[in-house]
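SAMPLE LOG
Freezer: B-3
Tube label: C17
Construct: single chain, 150 aa
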Amino acid sequence: MTTDNACTQRPFDREALGRRALELHGMKYNCAQAVACTLAPLIGADEELCFRAAEGLGGGMGGLTETCGAVTGAAVVIGMANSSGKDDPTSKARTYRIVRKLVSDFREQNGSTLCPELKGIKTKQPLRSCNGCIADAIDLTADALQQLRA
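STRUCTURE (predicted):
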C-alpha cells in the first residue's frame, strides 16, 4: 500500500513519532498497536484498521511472550507499505527482506526479539523496556519506510 501522500514526501520527525507511540502505549495500546497506529498516517493506512490488525500481537503475540509486539507491529506496517496487494501478490520477497533486516537490526541493538528476554522475565535483568522497544521499532521502521520511498 504505497502512497503518494504528502506526508510521505517529507523526512519523518522521529521525535514526534516516538512521543506519539509512547503516548498511545500509555493509553493502553499494546506495543504492536502503538507502533502500527503511530506509523499508519505515514503509509496512508487507516489507524482503526491498524489498531484492530495489531491487537492480537501484543504481549509477544496474544500474551504468549513470543516475538516482541513492537517488532511485529513494525512488520505489519512494512507489509502494508510494500505490498502490491492481492491482485498482484509479487511483493512478498521484498517485504520479507525488509522485515528480516528490521528484525536483525532490532536484535543486534537489543540482544533479542523475544518479549520475555527483553523484559528479563526469567533473569530479572531486562534487556530493554517496552517503551524502549517501541522507540527502537519506530526508528527502524521509519528507516525502512524511507528506503522504500527512495
